[in-house]
Structure formats: structure tokens, C-alpha cells
Amino acid sequence: MPGLYIHVPFCRRKCGYCDFASEAGKEDRIDSYLEALSGEAAAYTGLTGTFDTLYIGGGTPSLLSPGQLKELLSAVSKLTGPVEKLKESTFEANPESLDGEKAALLKKTGMNRISLGLQAGQDKLLKTLGRIAMKSDFLAAFNTLRTAGFTNINADLMCGLPGQTAGDFTAGLDWLLKLRPEHISLYALEVHGNTPFSAAGVREEPEAAAEMYEAAAIMLKRAGLERYEISNFSRPGKEAIHNLNYWEQGDYLGLGTGAASYIDGERRANTADTAGYIKAGLAGLAIPCQYRETLPGRKKKAERIMLGLRKTAGIELPDDIFIEFNEEISRLTAAGLLEKTGNRIKIKEDRLYISNAVFREFV
């Protein structure tokens, strides 16, 4: 069981683009939620010590108080064993809720990687996104993490934002690169239903985002961050191990509201209703599922290909899968979208941004 994901669904404010399982202004539920989460974790004690990686995401995990963080990490360690012995342990944080005390606590308890949300390099754009933290807050939090001893920090950055120019994007990325983070995740804006952006009629700008993506790839490579997955760039040896397990169709357990799991070929996700999650957890009942599915043979193989193609190195296919999907592979290769070397296939570097056109062939 390589990966353990823990979801913390609480935020101080919901960003305009966010469609994750999260809720704002409900901090009074956190203690009950942690109790329910501890109960859910107890159902998997048979997996204790089998995890390689840990990822605590949200929501905003850094919104928790130091005492609540201790409670969370105590519950987690009952499954993982000593956190410091894991290959990788990531904690998501937002700048406005991360201080020196929390950073020191995370370091002391063995967390070795922090993912810090920046999203944009201009305050005007951060306000458009509905972010609380401004650029100066990110800088303060980043420096706090360095002072606490963290040597593996990821920063999230977005492109294709409303009102964002190419100059805004490259200036923001240039500023971020001067801080020398070990990893950068780059995402184009996607407008999903049931979000404030959708309600406001905000539109995606895929062409502008594509240009920013390509400019970023060049800048990041020059700065020593290699693209190893469609949206992720890292310094050597700093690739996200937890996420690589997803893309290699490895097993993982997800705990908390909306958390997804993939175990022995079955995919399932917990309810996205935090109140319902807490109610079931405190009553000692099984956590309700949003869905549960086991992919049949060909669909499972197709998913394996799609996930593997997210990596810039591509995927080495066994003979049987290569033969079964030879028609699709040959068509994509002839169209100039795939490169093929023996049984290894990968999306061409200059076609990564239109990867969805490749993935559709395997659906």
C-alpha cells in the first residue's frame, strides 16, 4: 500500500475556481471531524506500516491550530508508523495560515515536504481568484518554511486566469524562481460547475494558457527544474513520489471527506458531505461512499496507459497491452502525437499541452 492520502476539508474562504470537497467558515466542526477521521483510520490498522508516502491535502490543512495538528498527526502515525521514516510526507499549506509554530511542529513530527499555494504573482490576480494571501504573505511563509528547515517545497502556479497577460505570468514565474523552490506545479484555469467562477460566467482561456505553459516550460528548464509530468516540474530527485504512484496505477488509501482510494483494482471515494462524514464517523458507522467501481480488463489497461502517458518518460507496456492497443498507438504515432521506442510510448514534448487529444483515443 504505497500511498496514504488524508483530506482536511476546511478553508477560511472558498476560492472562486475551487471545486474540491471543502467548506468555508466551519472551523467549529474541526474537532469533531478529527475524531471521525481517527475512527475511520482505526478501521485500517491492518495496513499499519505498509505505507511509503503520506499526503495531507485539502481544503487548507494549515488552518488547523497547533493542537489540532498534533491530534491529526498522532492519528496518522498510528497507520504510517513514524512519519520521518516514510519516503515522502507532504503537507499542503496556505500562506495566511502558516506560521513559525506550525512550521516547526510539522518539521518536528517528520513531515519532509510542503506544498504552498501561490497561484499568481500579482496581488490583483490573487484578489480575482478570491485568495486571502497576497504575494508578500507567500514570501513570508516560504521564508518561514526555510527557517524551519524544509528543503523540499512545492509552489502551485496557475495560468490562463481572467485578466492575466503573458507578461504577468512570466513575471510571476520569474519572481518565484528566484526563491529556488524544489518543485513547481503548473495548472491552467478550469472552470467547473457549482463554483463562484462558473456562476459569474468566467470563461477558460485555453489558447492563452497554452502559450503561458510553453513559456513556463522553457523558463523552468533553464532554472534547473525538469518537466517529469504534464503539470509538474522538479529539481533532480525532488519529484513527487506520492503523485508518481497515482500515475503508475499504484494502490493508495484515502481518508476523510471526498477522499478517493484505489485498492486491489477497486476505486472508491468517500462522501463529499462533511456533516454526513462526521455523523457516520462519530456513530461508528461505515463512511458513506460517493461511488465504488472496479474497471473491467480493457478499461483498466486503457487507464494504465493514460496515467502512464502523463509522465514525460511515458510508459513501458507489456507485450499483451501493446498488441491490444496497437491500432490506437499507431494512429497517434502517425499523427505526430506519440513517440514509440520498442514497447515504450510517450507523448511528444511539444504536444504535452494537448494531451487530452491523446487520452481520448483510449477512453
What does this structure look like?
The protein has 363 residues and is α/β, with parallel strands linked by helices. It folds into two domains: 3-247, TIM Barrel; 297-362, Arc Repressor Mutant, subunit A (Orthogonal Bundle). 38% of the residues lie in helices and 21% in strands. The protein contains 14 helices and 17 strands. It has helices spanning 30-42, 66-80, 100-108, 123-129, 135-148, 166-177, 196-199, 206-222, 241-247, 274-282, 297-308, 319-324, 326-334, 355-359, and strands at 3-8, 10-11, 23-24, 53-58, 88-93, 113-119, 153-159, 183-188, 226-229, 232-234, 252-255, 260-263, 266-270, 289-294, 315-316, 338-341, 344-347. It has a nine-stranded mixed sheet with strand order 9-10-8-7-6-5-4-1-11, with helices on both faces. Strands 12-13-14 form a three-stranded antiparallel sheet, with no helix packed on it. A hairpin with a 2-residue loop joins strand 12 (260-263) and strand 13. Helix 1 packs across helix 10 (274-282) and helix 6 runs parallel beside helix 8. The model has no long low-confidence stretch (mean pLDDT 95).
